[in-house]
Amino acid sequence: MAGSLVAHKRTIQSRTKVKTGCATCRIRKIKCDENKPFCKKCTDTSRTCDGYESPFRLVTSQATGTSSSPQRTPAQIASQDVDLLNRYFSIKTMFDVKLACDDEARQVLQASLTDLPIQHAVSSLKVLREDLQTSRGVPGSVAQPTANHDYGLQKYCRALRGLASTLSSPDSDALRSTLLCCQVFISIEQVRGNYAAMAQHIIQGLGIMRENRARPNFVVAANELVPARRDQLPFLDVFVVKLFAAPCKYVDPPASTAVHQQPIEIRRDGLRTIAPDKRKGLTDIAESTLEFLDEVSRVESAGDALELLSEKASLLGSLGLWLAGLELDNAENRVLTELISVLFMRFFHQILKTVLLGVLDSSPEGSAQLQIENERLQGIASEVGERVKDYFRTVGGTAKWPNGGM
């Protein structure tokens, strides 16, 4: 079954040259040999192969019906396991940052008791995160590969293959497994420093939520509230916003001879921070976005949905003002090359915008705008990934992770 899915995928991809092969070869616009897990075109030229397209797109527009999973008696999940997975979800926790994803960790661990792809994904994240810590924070995409790193990638590949097989006939259980796997895959790619692949998982996962109507939708032309089709699906957007909204410790390379840089200040712990700190504005919008998503999940009338559409427009307006402020600061300070921490804020901003645009709107116009923003998100993620790799190649073994990861 998995073999037939791969054959079907290659048939679709062969229609346009730019969409075949690994992410690295697609960016370079060259033909990829599609060797797994890493193509020889990259390895033979000492490049980092960023892997292949996420399998999540296979479920898009395929799921129908409204069946829900039968209730099961949950097994006991140890609190220390929840705490451990909650920490492993984000590399920020390497800097003593608290991540508020206990509920998401518990859901993943509960599902992993009976779901083999999720088991492999969790095992991969655990091994790769521990390998990152032993390598003093240098991601596997830059560091010399270790036996543990290779084992973690093998587990990752097994999770991807298992999920592709599960999605051959997606039902509610398969979609739930997909979104839970997606949470772990996002964290895996963050650990690896492959932000382009991370963004791809985010985009495909949010697309699954949207097309399978994980939340109620509002049809403006008919003034009609359409109830959720799959009310048991995990809210991937909430997980992603939490991941990006967790506090950061900005760390950038020591100042060079360049004179046109963002103003900075030196803290007592030696870390360099942006001044003024524009990240607080984003975290405030993120908190409001989480409240908005919760309200959308519980909306029951068209009138309430109209009010929420107004709130959505206000949040998008706040994001626009924040970005305009950042561009103004750059212009006033004659910034030529943004700090990595600023790029991560742009990544955060684009995540919030993409999440908001996909809520309460399934119109053709909304879908077209969302596609544009998804492409922007992918572009920012690719730039972040390249800058992070350059950073670690420059500072070598003395590196600290730039800005706590995101």
From TrEMBL:
The keyword Cell division appears for this protein: no
SUPFAM superfamilies: Zn2/Cys6 DNA-binding domain
Keyword Nucleotide-binding: no
Alphabetical list of PROSITE patterns matching this protein: ZN2_CY6_FUNGAL_1, ZN2_CY6_FUNGAL_2
GO MF term set: DNA binding; DNA-binding transcription factor activity, RNA polymerase II-specific; zinc ion binding
The entry's keywords: DNA-binding, Metal-binding, Nucleus, Transcription, Transcription regulation, Zinc
Gene3D superfamilies xrefs: Zn(2)-C6 fungal-type DNA-binding domain
Domain of life: Eukaryota
A Pfam family annotated for this UniProt entry: Zn_clus
Sequence ranges assigned to domain Zn(2)-C6 fungal-type in this UniProt record: 21-49
Name of this protein: Zn(2)-C6 fungal-type domain-containing protein
